[in-house]
Amino acid sequence: MENIDWGNLSFGYMKTDCNVRSYFRDGQWSEPQVSTSEMIDLHMAATCLHYGQESFEGLKAFTGKDGKIRIFRMRENALRMQSSCRGIMMAELPVEIFEKCVVEAVKQNSRFVPPYGSGASLYIRPLLIGTSAQVGVKPANEYLFLVFVTPVGPYFKEGFKTTPVGIFREYDRAAPLGTGTYKVGGNYAASLIAGNKAHEKGYSAVLYLDAKEKKYVDECGPANFFGIKNNTYITPASTSILQSITNKSLMQLAKDMGMKVEQRQVPIEELATFEEAGMCGTAAVISPIQRVDDVNENKSYVFSKDGKAGEVSTKLYNKLKAIQCGDEPDVYGWVTLVE
Ligand code: PLP
Ligand code: COI
Predict the structure, then answer these.
(1) pLDDT value at 1 more than 60
(2) Which of 109, 131, 234, 250 lies at 20 to 30 Å from 147 by C-alpha?
(3) Tell me, what's the pLDDT at 2?
């Protein structure tokens, strides 16, 4: 076994032993097949290359104190991928095949699941692409689903520390009735320029406003947004954001902690009233926000004067991590044990 420095992993790709694939041909998905190749053999006219028929997912597996491997909310990712398939007219993958491939990929690569307490996790990346040739703009009739895994550290190198995020009003990520609610590659391509600009200016991420009116908070490049005030967890409702599974989990945990939860439009001016704010997602977990700069308007909203994460964000973060690692009971059936 290579010597992996579990405590110092970044969020990047590392080769593991194998990946798991299922092919859609003649109207049917094949049984999962294990492959040791990191390559795929693809037709040059495949629809994923030309017309963006591509969806991906992101979920994580953790090792508990008991040494058991736990996958977090896998079914939710399977259902969201089905929604993405419907959104861009790809063959819908049955939940059972999604789950079988994910479990098999984790099992076969169990030596890459970071140990308990390392702070790292196994990132699971399911991918579904249109593989058959089309030259006209039409959906493919053949698809490939594959799952690879890679051990990762924090998405933002700071980990659970506050960072600044920026609003850049000259860019949109997704249109109000476009593909923002689907996890498809095109949304991420659309976010690259703004993301790059943000990083150059020292921001960890872009905070997007609604594309139509630029009045309401949408989400961050790779994560949903939430704010905390008056014992209330507030997160945007919007037709152009991804329905984050982490956010859904945090809303439940906030309720369990006796907080009110509001999912509604969040006017940009309301940022001034939040006691805490954060980004949340599988990769981001909770990444507390130090301040939001509305760059074009020359305005700042500060949530943390001392750079520390807020009390509520910290509590939510610890609670989520504890459930994911099995330190706290899994009362909602969020965790799948890999035997
Ligand atoms: N929003 C976007 C645009 C994302 O890419 C992600 C990451 O998956 C999220 C939100 C968070 O979603 P989840 O918590 O399901 O990972
Ligand atoms: C995730 O959190 O799983 C994501 O997909 C976000 C980013 C890496 C694209």
Answers:
(1) no
(2) 250
(3) 67
- Cα angle 141, 143, 149; round to 5: 170
Whether the CB of 222 sits within 6 Å of ligand 1: yes
Residue 338 lies in a domain: no
Q: Is 15 a catalytic residue?
A: no
Least confident of 47-51, 156-160, 196-200, 216-220: 156-160
CA nearest ligand 2 atom 7, residue: 222
Q: Is the CB of 223 under 6 A from ligand 1?
A: yes
- The pLDDT tens digits of the residues spanning 111-135 come to 999 999 999 999 999 999 999 999 9
Which is the catalytic residue, given 183, 214, 255, 260? 183
Supply the pTM of this predicted model. Answer: 0.98
- Domain ends where: 152, 183, 217? 152
Name the residue of 56, 73, 184, 282 whose CB sits within 8 Å of the most ligand 2 atoms, as the mutation to test its pocket. Answer: 282
- Span 198-226, mean pLDDT? 98
Which of 129, 152, 175 represents a domain boundary (last residue)?
152
Range of the domain at 184: 163-324
What integer pLDDT is reported at residue 79 of this predicted model?
98
Q: Is residue 65 part of a domain?
A: yes
Same domain membership, residue 304 and residue 200 = yes
Whether residue 18 contacts residue 12, with contact meaning beta carbons closer than 8 Å, is answered with no
The number of folded domains in the chain is 2
